[in-house]
Amino acid sequence: MVMRISSRLMSIADLVIAGEPVADIGSDHALLACYLVDEGRCPRAICGELGEGPYRRTFEAVCKYGLDHLIEVRQGNGLEVLAVGEVATVVLAGMGGNTIVSILNASPPKTQSFNRLVLQPMNALVEVRRLASSKGWSIEKETVVKDGDYYVNLVLNPRCRQDNKLSETELRWGPLLMQDAQKEPVVRDYYRFQLDKLERIIAGIPKHSTGRSLRRKQEYEKRKKELEEVLK
Ligand SMILES: C[S@@+](CC[C@H](N)C(=O)[O-])C[C@H]1O[C@@H](n2cnc3c(N)ncnc32)[C@H](O)[C@@H]1O
User: Fold this and answer.
1) How far is the CA of 100 from the centre of ligand 1 (A)?
2) Which of 9, 119, 212, 220 is deepest in the core (most CB within 10 A)?
3) Ligand 1: distance of its center to the CA of 82 in Å?
4) Dmax over Cα atoms in the chain, in whole Å?
5) CB 119 within 8 A of CB 93
6) pTM for the complete prediction?
């Protein structure tokens, strides 16, 4: 059977270390792990799920695709389901940035035992980059995919130290994406989309506002300027 996955999931599959075991934490429908193993990109996979319902869903999907001899499904919180260095790549996708931060921060030595982290936060990207910057984990790649909405993928190498701390602008918009804005149309489109969003928010704040709403307006105007600079 040829497995089809969305372009959002395919963009993650393309970032996983080929030929090595992978773990998908928060796997839910298990499509990513099934695809990677079925295509022979990874020899085996571990799916981690927290709640009973998603755990069962993952387990049933793996059995449905006849891949239960190559994919192990484990129930537990975040990286707790993995032994130190058990896989090469850990994927955390489709969850909020703050959840990803708390999973990676629960045990930094365990997080640092994996070669690659592929992260696709649904929001709070700034917090995920802030964690990487504060721990000195190198951001090796950032990509954008449009699959209905825009999604940003971050590839971290927690074993390779990056000592220069990221600025607030880099945390917000991505140090590598900012460099790609001139040559990658999808990155420019993503930034233009963010710029439109900011302009709409600013337009909704009364002209002669004071106090908190004035400070909010000034903050959004600063972000707008940052994006205009990147898009120049
Ligand atoms: C929206 S689904 C994303 C599924 C898939 N990763 C994707 O990108 O399509 C998020 C999943 O993460 C799981 N999850 C949330 N917090 C978790 C945690 N701390 N440990 C393991 N799984 C978690 C949820 O149960 C849910 O099934």
Assistant:
1) 10
2) 119
3) 15
4) 65
5) yes
6) 0.97
The pLDDT value given to residue 105: 97
Domain ranges of the chain: 7-168, 185-231
- 69-101 pLDDT per residue, tens: 999 999 999 999 999 999 999 999 999 999 999
Looking at 3.40.50.150, 3.30.559.70, 3.40.190.170, 3.30.470.20, the CATH number of the domain 7-168 comes to 3.40.50.150
As given in the structure block, the two tokens for residue 117 are 């982290």
Atom 13 of ligand 1: nearest residue by CA position: 26
Rounded distance from Cα 92 to ligand 1 centre (Å): 8
* Cα–Cα dist 21/11, whole Å: 18
d(CA 143, CA 176): 9
Residues 6+ apart with CB under 8 A from 135: 108, 158
Distance 36 CA to ligand 1 centre (A): 18
| Mutation test residue for ligand 1: of 9, 12, 49, 119, the one with most atoms within 8 Å of CB | 49
Does the pLDDT of residue 2 top 80, yes or no? Answer: no
Ligand 1 and 54: CB distance under 6 A: yes
Q: pLDDT tens for residues 169-202?
A: 999 999 999 999 999 999 999 999 999 999 999 9
Confidence (pLDDT) at 161: 87
Nearest CA to ligand 1 atom 26: 26
Nearest by Cα to 155 from 183, 175, 185, 182: 175
Ligand 1 contact, 93 CB (< 6 A):
yes
CA distance 159 to 163: 12
From the alpha carbon of 102, which atom of ligand 1 is closest? 19
